[in-house]
Structures are given as structure tokens and as C-alpha cells.
Amino acid sequence: MDTRYIGKPIKRLEDPRLLTGQALFTDDVHLDGLLHAAFLRSDYAHARIKSIDVSEALKRPGVIAVYTAEDFGDYWHVGPLQVPPPIAIPNAKFHAKGLPPIARGKVRFSGEPLAVVVAESRYIAEDAAGDILVDVEPLDAVVDLEKAFEDTSVLIHEDIGTNMAALVKQEKGSYAEAAAKADFIIKRKFHIDRGSAGAMENRALIASWENRTQSMTIWTNNQAPIPLRNTIASNLGLSDSQVHVITAFTGGGFGPKIMTSQADDVLLPWISKKLNRPVKWIEDRRENFLATTSERDQVHYCELALTRDGKILGFSDVFYHNTGAYDPYGMTVPLNTMTHTMGSYIVPNFYTEVRMVFTNKMVVSPVRGAGRMYGNYVMERMLDAAARELKLDVVEIRRKNLIQPEMLPLHTGITGQDFVENVIDSGNYPETLRKALEMIGYEKFVKEDQPKLRAQGKKVGIGIVTFVEGTGVGPYEGAKVTIEGSGKINVATGISSQGQGHYTSFAQIVAEQLGVEPKDVRITTGDTDQFDWGAGTFASRGMTVAGTAIYLASVNVRKKILKTASKALNAPEEELEISGGEVRVADIPTKSIKLGDLANRANPTRGVIEPGVEPGLEATAYYGPPYGATGQGSVAIILEVDPETFEVKIQRFVLVHDAGNIMNPMIVEGQIMGGVQMGLGNAFYEEIAYDEYGQLQNASLMDYLIPSATEMPPKIELGHVVSPSPLNPLGLKGVGEAGAIPIPSCFHQAIENALENKIEITASPMNPSRLFELTHK
Amino acid sequence: MSGEYKINVKVNGKNYERMVEPRLLLSDFIRHEIGLTGTHVGCEHGVCGTCTVLFDGLPSRSCLIFAVQAHRHEVVTVEGLGSIEQLHPLQKAFQEKHALQCGYCTPGFLMTLVPFVEKHSHPSDEEIREAIGGNLCRCTGYENIVEAVKLASAMMHTSKE
Prior knowledge:
The complex is a heterodimer of chains A (777) and B (161).
Chain A: H1 15-19, E1 35-41, E2 47-53, H2 55-59, E3 63-68, E4 93-94, E5 106-107, E6 113-119, H3 122-131, E7 133-138, H4 145-148, E8 164-172, H5 175-181, E9 184-192, E10 204-210, E11 215-220, H6 225-236, E12 243-247, H7 263-275, E13 279-282, H8 285-291, E14 298-306, E15 312-324, H9 332-340, E16 349-358, H10 372-390, H11 394-401, E17 410-415, E18 421-424, H12 429-440, H13 442-455, E19 459-471, E20 477-483, E21 489-493, H14 502-514, E22 521-525, H15 542-569, E23 576-579, E24 582-585, E25 588-594, H16 595-601, E26 617-623, E27 629-641, E28 648-658, H17 665-685, E29 716-720, H18 743-754, E30 763-764, H19 768-775
Parallel strand pairs in A: 1-13, 9-30, 11-12, 15-16, 21-22, 28-29
Antiparallel strand pairs in A: 1-6, 2-5, 2-7, 3-6, 4-8, 8-16, 9-14, 10-11, 10-13, 14-15, 17-18, 19-27, 20-21, 20-26, 23-24, 24-25, 27-28
Helix pairs in contact in A: 6-7, 9-10, 10-18, 14-15, 15-16, 17-18
Chain B: E1 5-11, E2 14-20, H1 26-33, E3 52-55, E4 58-61, E5 74-76, H2 89-96, H3 106-119, H4 125-131, H5 143-160
Helix pairs in contact in B: 2-5
């Protein structure tokens, strides 16, 4: 396709403001009369609350109010589930436990809010939180996933009589029959532990009630501003139109910022309305670790049934999923695991069963890679185990089982997070694998370099895996595109932005259609007064779903331009061209009209317009895919393990990706590279460490290790394969989570290879101490 | 904690005189007392580097300094670097190489790097990674930041030569 802007590495329009400190983030908002909130959070993971004495806190000068659950009276309620139960799956059992905004009667995780202090400054609010006396009866903490499921366990929610949050089974074909026919059955247990999303900006919210206009303004960095507005309005008995949510520039999202019905968005609007003053809450880093949702905590029991020559006959995966103390985000994460376990491979028979468990840990909600990473980990690790036992090459066993392009679209038989059957729409899996092997020089490394280096005593190894990434799921997003009388173009969509470059990439779509430059297109995301239909930014769907809605709206505006211009210029539509902000008759360049003038003609202040004609040059469009678009890719890593310190140094890093057609390659590559950092963290550095009492032991960036520049590979070498998605007109697929999914599986395979398969890694994250333990068993 | 003290701090060439509590962090002073919100705060325990400013010319974490310690000292924040109309070469290079995504950590990286790029005309990848080793970024994977530093160094030193 010959394009001017689509597919081009256009530099980002939002950068100058961000680079000069002129971009507005939530904490930058200052309002007259602003009050500051701080939360007192539970030190215990599991306890009955006996009393909370706030009298000393109230005496402190500058304190305006202190509230506990009781003070909210009937307003206190358990939040609605943000994602509905998986009723689309037959026989699914699910116990709904929405989030209480502030603990009442009992605390169920360390960090759960007990009281909120409102004061003239944040310093005073934090002082006063320290004045509050809390008397509790500590209870045994439930922290072990498998033990929590046993009948003898202490209960977290007594009313349901079990710690089982959900039980869901899905099967394609019959694993039992496959196992009966198999030459080999490989069994392994895996544990993948928890990490933090770790956005550099913590969560933030300002609620400002204005009595004179009876309206609530919310500034926040939420990923789902429209659902947030709807729940705030509903909680307070207001009309949606009385609540205006504005998402300012946001310092990274990565998942947890999608949560609603938490302490901040439930309590602060109520407090602001009661006090008739604006109230600000800025989360600090310790709170972010303790009390912002996080992800990754599953134990898998896997069985792989194979023929003698390494063909997969069936895969069985029974896994425990830790949902934390509540399950407000439904089953999105484990359902993603279920749809990603078969990965890039032909698995004729597949059994998957999730036992979702309540524990006294922070609530789990999606984090970049959400659920997909574990599916990838267990399948790739099982293939490595099979290759080891069958004495096959790790590449060979993958090649034998790869899904071939002519098999697509492929119905997988497994229902996913969007409650429809997962279908792989398009792709060329053998090609991404071939390209990754070629880029890293697999044959040469294995045959020539590695033996030489090993002879010198170096522990160098290579890893190669493939991955799939379900992206761009429904339900839908929408957008409104308007040409204003000044000729400026305004675009509004419901999703919010956390650094993905939407102000540029969305502008590219519109500029292409409307014959202007991207800089002439003003994009507004996440402002409910500008556009108020949509679900939010998650599941790598911004470009695929909202971007497609913007494209469809632009196409409709283009039609209106041509129709109006045809009359204005007295020329047939086929002879018109739109470029440089005006419409021209192709053969007579002097015969032209500016887009702004055309917009004014379409919006007369007097006279009559024909019946059925909408004023202006404006269109609103919605897009909802039947199912998500599936990205795919292959990763290859060469690394060296220090045999004394067990530090690991990556020497080469190759990732070949297929995200369909690409809007802005510069932005897409940036997304992949960022994901890779989180993937490396998950593989070797980052772990949210709870002890047996449910205490978080590393709630600071000093103890929780986010990879810095010195831990990253010297270069991330990227390759692209393009299989356009047939699901949307631009052939797009999402890409935001690609980097985060396949790194632990590849990294661990490469470490095993470096150590000549003398150890087997079945847990993630690894770290130098764990590697030392494995090698010294 | 009692009492307030009068301090005079020069920020981006301008003198600010304020009464402050001795416990007020320099980062809060910069952001909320004098309203320069370009300096961001990521952890408030001195690890992430997001709040880095130049303190008497040296990159320093403003969340680990009390405002009173800045009395009669000179601070430069990202607002003092370049303007939208006239970006500093580092800022220009960051845009050119796509070295920022959400942009939250970016002011800290820029202020960490200002003296570095002034000093180094042809820094190696390793030197650059070492220089930014105390700044965390969750979006970029750092590679494009390394590329931007190389470009900025080249721009700054070529124009001088």
C-alpha cells in the first residue's frame, strides 16, 4: 500500500512537552482549597479488626477529617466485579468477591486500607495516620497456593466455606485418549511467582466536587476512565453526565492502573462531596508495592504426551492460580493462560484446568503479558524437557509441531478472556522461527562457536522459543473525528494513554485519510467529556481496536468532505483530491476549497439544511472485533553464566515479531523493547517476596530489582514478519505485551544450555542464589 | 518538626525566597512550593532517579535532599534546560531516537546526563549505560536512551569543534 503516514516512523508529537517538563501529570494539578489524603494500611495480612481509635489523629493541627469503614455508613459497599464471571464456559464455578474500598470487620491482605486521613498537607496526613491506634486479632495467614485449597485451611471468606475462588475446566479432544496412545509422557511441575508492574508514576487521583454546578471532576491516571466515571456516578447516585473524568499524561500503566472500585476512586469522591473541597491522593512507592494489584503466581502440573519422534499428541495442564484476597478482575489472567498454553504448536488434545485460590496476598489483576507468560513458560519448558528426554534438538522438536500458515484461521477450542473461542487469525510461524535462527546464527553458534568457547571453560548457552500474543480483544472502542471551522482536526476516543504514542500514531491514521499532516490532528484520549463510550486500555488493544474506530470515523468524514466539496466546487467526487488541508479538482488545481471553509459550509448559521443531513464534517464510529488478533514471534538468546557468581550476561538477543501491518515502526519497536525489560525482570530479577505471614518483604525499589541499563542486553536485535490480520481493515495486531511474554522461557532454556543441561529450571524468577542452589544440589 | 525557616534557593537562575518546614523535601519544594512540576517523583527513597536535578551543577536526587539544605545553593530543573521552541541537544536527541515513552522518568534521565554529554564527546555504550545505571525506566528498555546520548554527544561536540 502506498501511504504518506501509515507505516512510517513519524517522530512523536507529544515529546517536546514531555521533554521540557510541560506535560501535565495528575500530581501536577493544583486546585484552590486542595486537601490531601493518606491511607493507614494494615500491617497484618489476615486479622479481625477489634477497634480503630482515631481520636489522637483528629487532634493534630491541620487534620480536617479521619474516616474508617463505619464512617461511610451505607455508602460502604463491596465493589462490583470489574470483569464478569466466566459464564460463557460450561460448568465454570466462580465465587465473586469484589473489593471492599476500606476494610470492615476483617483485613485480608497486608496493605489493605483501614483509615483515610484528610489534611491540609500530605505531610500532616501521614503524621496523623501514624497517630491512629488499631487493635486487631491476628489470624493465620493463607499464603501457600496449594495448601489454601485443602479443606483444613483457614478461610479467608468464611461465608463461602472454601478458599476456592473458581474452578474452570476446558478440553479440546481427549487428553486421556492421547496419553493412552503416547510413546512418552513427560511430567513436570512449575511455579511462576509474582512481580510488580512497576510503572514509574504511582497511582493518583484527585476528586473535586463543585456544589454550585453539582458536578464532580476527577483527575487520574486510570486506564479505564469511562468505566471509572460510570462507577463513581453510580456510587454517588449522580448522573454520568455530572462526573467528568480527565486522564492527564500518565507515567506508564502496564495493567494495574485499570482497576476501579478501589479506596481512592470510591472514597475520595464521597469525601470531596461531603467536605465540598477538592481532595488529592498520590500513592507512594511503598503503597504501590503493598496495595496496587500485581500479577504472576501460578503452580502448574503439566503432562505432555508425545510420539517417539517428538510429535505432540496431547497436553494436560492443571494449575493453581493465586487471585489474592479478592477477585474483582474475574478470571482474565487464568483464561489468558488457558488460551496461550498451546502457543504456536499443534496440540490435537488439550486439557486445561484452573483452580483459582484466595490467599492473604495482594489482589491479582493483569500486568503486561497478563496470563500469557505462564502459558508460554510451561509449554516451552515442557518442549525442552521432552527434547532432553527424547534426545532431540530443541529447534527440531519445535519445528515438528509448529502451526503452519495454511492451517489458519485456526479454531483452538478454548474460550479466552473475551468469553469467545480463541481463534488464531493469521500468521507465519515457521518464518519467524527461521528468521530468528538465521539472525542469531544458530547453526554456527552450536557447531563452531560454542564448542570453542566451552573448551576455554566458558559457560555459554543459547535459547530459542516461540510465542503467541492474543491482542486487540473486544468488546469495542469508538472515536469521533471532527473538522473544525478553523480547519483544525479534532479526534476523541475513549481509551486513555500511558505512553504508547497515541497522540502521534492515531494522528497518522487520520492524516492519511484527510490529506493533512499528523501535526494538524489533535488527539484527545481518556476525557469523558470528549468521548464517553468504550472499555479502556488493556490487552494490547489501543491501536487495533481504538485505532480501527478512528480509521472508520476518518473514512466517513472523508466521504462527507467529498460530498460537500462536490457541490461546492461543482465537480464530480471522482475528480476530487484531498491534500494539503484542501480539496482540489484534480485537473484544475486553482479550483479548490479549504477543509475549514468546507466545514463552515456544512455548518450554516442561517438558511436551511436538507432533511436527514447531519451538520458539520464529523463522524463517530465504533469497532468491535469478533475475536482478538493473534501476534506471534520467536526469540533467541545467547548468554554466559559466571560459574562462580552465577551472574548471567546476555551476549546476543534476537526477537522476531509478527504484529501484522504496523502503524509506526519506531513506536512498535519501542513497545517490544520495553516489554523485553519486564520479561527479563520476570526471568531473573523481579520478585514480590511475601513471607509465611503474608508480609511483603521487599516493598521498595532498593529491594525489588527492576533491571537497569546495565542488566539489559547490549543490543535488542529485532526482526519483523508481516501477516496482516484479516479482522480489521488496516490489518493490525497489538504488540504491547510481546516482549514480556517469551523471555523467562527462553532465558531459562539458554541457562540450562550454558550449564550443559546439568540442571533443570522449573521456577521463575531465577536469580544467582537459586542457580547456585540448583547446581549444588 | 516545629517552626519554619526562611530559605533562598536559586532555581533555573531565579531566586526563590520561601518559609519552609525543615523536613520539606527539595522535590516537594520544587514541585509544590514553586510550581515547577517538570521534576517528577518515582520512589521517594533515592533509587529510581526520576527526581534528579542539578544541585550546584551535579546530578542529585531531590527526594533525598531537604529544601533547607538548598538554602543559598543553585538548582537546575528540566524547565531550565531547553524550551519547546528551542530544545537542548539532549532533548532533541531523545525525540529523534524515541528515547521516551510515558516520559515520566525522562526529566531525571536528562538532568543525570547533562554533565555527562558535556564531558564526553564519543562515549561508548558501556560508559553510557554506567552513567544511567542509577535511573530506572519501565518503558524503553534503555536502548534508545543509549542511542540518544550518542547522538546528543555528537551534536554538542561537533557544533563546538
